[in-house]
């Protein structure tokens, strides 16, 4: 009991890691070794991330509506008033929290797979950047862990650079979820938000865009190395207009953590997926991982597969307020070539064959 009280006291003081330390000091049981305890904490940390993004926004909205029908309506009214007042904050740099980005839970999240961030070149704090992240995967585990937390040491590896992971703008209309995401430095993937970060927030900003988006998640499965990029040129045009350097980023292993039911192009089911993707903004993938207690069963827990994120060499981009289509095409081609070179250089380091290649869709 004293040990648990010490852990609670540590959390109150902000130490965070005291919970694990206290639990590890408890008398060991044959069915719960220290290694199993750590593994369960890692699984819980991953599940909380998944459930947060799948359910927190909807659950908070339902709760807010329910509170209006109870004696606690004042609380709901005050939060709604705050929500209206704070509505544009996500578009204006958000509300980043160093404390949240350094939560101990993210180290367990990192170690579950594990996830690594690999630096290949220095980035200048005097410049702004657009990172193109590939591939999307199902939940973008690598993108979140590397750029929305400090679990892999982004700030130490790239001093003076502030990463902002861009995601669906609709997420920022949901109570509590919007605040949770802003604390991690996540921003809406829309013109106003990215314009603010790249032109009115000084230098040293790195906007991370998952270029393939929801469409790419329909093509992710173990063994597939493909990215949706051939007709994605908006991020290149934006980079030219803001004079932000382009940085290709590839995560080896992002597609390995879930198995997905793949429907053939042209089939009725694939047509339904495409239609729902356009309506909802995200792709309704049919996927599975493993169970909470066993890797042999099916469940929502991703498989333990290493995710290695390589940050490539920046492509210097001039500032051109009205770039021509030819100029956009030229830098788009340069970006594709740079991403392919990055993939080819590191693929054998992470279990791929020399004959494997990156498919650009």
Describe the structure.
The chain has 361 residues and is an alpha/beta fold. It contains 14 helices and twelve strands. The radius of gyration is 21 Å and the shape is globular. It starts with a helix and ends with a strand. Residues 1-15 have low confidence and may be disordered.
Please outline what is shown here.
With 361 residues, the protein is α/β, with parallel strands linked by helices.
Number of helical elements: 14
How helix-rich are the residues, as a percent range?
Answer: 40-55%
Q: Main beta sheet: strand number and arrangement?
A: 7 strands, mixed
Global mean pLDDT: 90
- Helix/strand class: alpha/beta
Shape: globular
What portion of the residues fall into strands of 2 or more residues? 5-15%
DSSP E strands, number: 12
Based on CA atoms alone, the radius of gyration comes out at: 21 Å
What's the N-to-C terminus distance? Answer: 58 Å
Helices and strands, with pairings:
Blueprint: H1 2-12, H2 18-24, H3 34-68, H4 73-85, H5 98-101, H6 105-112, E1 115-119, E2 129-134, H7 141-147, H8 154-157, E3 162-167, H9 177-183, E4 187-188, H10 191-199, E5 205-210, H11 213-217, E6 226-227, H12 234-242, E7 245-252, E8 259-260, H13 268-280, E9 287-290, E10 298-299, E11 307-311, H14 325-346, E12 359-360
Parallel strand pairs: 1-11, 2-5, 2-7, 3-4, 3-5, 6-12
Antiparallel strand pairs: 7-11, 8-9, 9-10
Helix pairs in contact: 1-2, 3-4, 3-6
């Amino acid at each position: 009991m004293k040990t648990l009280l010490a852990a609670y006291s540590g959390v109150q003081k902000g130490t965070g890691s005291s919970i694990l330390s206290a639990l590890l000091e408890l008398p060991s049981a044959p069915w719960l070794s220290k290694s199993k305890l750590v593994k369960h904490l890692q699984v819980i940390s991953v599940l909380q991330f998944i459930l947060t993004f799948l359910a927190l926004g909807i659950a908070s909205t339902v709760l807010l509506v329910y509170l209006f029908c109870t004696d606690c309506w004042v609380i709901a009214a005050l939060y709604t008033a705050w929500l209206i007042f704070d509505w544009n904050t996500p578009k204006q740099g958000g509300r980043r929290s160093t404390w949240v980005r350094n939560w101990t839970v993210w180290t367990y999240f990192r170690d579950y797979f594990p996830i690594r961030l690999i630096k290949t070149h220095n980035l200048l704090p005097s410049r702004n950047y657009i990172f193109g992240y590939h591939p999307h995967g199902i939940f973008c585990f690598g993108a979140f862990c590397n750029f929305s937390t400090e679990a892999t040491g982004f700030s130490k590896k790239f001093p003076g650079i502030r990463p902002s992971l861009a995601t669906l703008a609709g997420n920022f209309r949901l109570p509590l979820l919007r605040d949770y995401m802003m604390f991690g430095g996540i921003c809406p993937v829309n013109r106003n938000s990215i314009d603010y970060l790249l032109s009115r927030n000084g230098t040293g900003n790195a906007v991370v865009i998952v270029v393939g988006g929801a469409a790419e998640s329909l093509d992710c499965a173990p063994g597939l190395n493909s990215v949706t990029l051939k007709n994605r040129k908006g991020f290149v045009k934006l980079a030219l207009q803001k004079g932000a350097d382009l940085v290709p980023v590839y995560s080896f292993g992002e597609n390995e953590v879930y198995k997905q039911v793949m429907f053939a192009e042209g089939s009725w089911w694939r047509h339904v997926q495409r239609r729902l993707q356009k309506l909802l903004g995200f792709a309704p993938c049919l996927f599975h991982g493993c169970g909470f207690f066993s890797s042999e069963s099916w469940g929502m827990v991703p498989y333990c597969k290493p995710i290695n994120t390589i940050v490539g060499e920046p492509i210097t981009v001039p500032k051109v307020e009205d770039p021509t289509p030819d100029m956009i095409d030229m830098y788009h081609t340069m970006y594709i070539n740079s991403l392919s070179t990055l993939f080819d250089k590191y693929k054998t380091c992470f279990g791929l064959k020399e004959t494997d290649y990156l498919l650009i869709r």
